Amino acid sequence: MEAVEYPRTPLSERKKSAQNWERAGWAFMRISGVLLIFLVFVHLYSNLIAGDGVHQIDYQFVVAEKFAVPFWLIWDALLLVLALIHGTNGMRTIVNDYVYKPGPRKALVATLWIACIVEIVLGMIVLIVFAVEPCFQGGASICS
Q: How confident is the model at residue 67 (pLDDT cuts 50, 70, 90)?
């Protein structure tokens, strides 16, 4: 992995590359950060303040009522994916800043992204399973 250019390097002195991943990562962090603030606060408001507040939160509310509406399912999926990618990209930046040897740095970054992908897949499985069959466990209804 190449060293990251000094941020204030004049354009005329910068290396020309077809894809500037660091710039894309920087832009993603700013955009996803703003989106995450909005997603989190609406998520907290809808779960903790609206309706009966925190007293309404139980399995029935989250799975049978909230996830019955596709809008909230997509909202929570977007929150999950953006938060995990945002956090992983932040950790990648820290690894790039403090791990100087290329081998360990590549191994750590690969581990971060693998963990991110596994967590996204597991989180999406949970969301999809609860959206498809929210109230049945072993053939018995648990929502009634």
A: confident
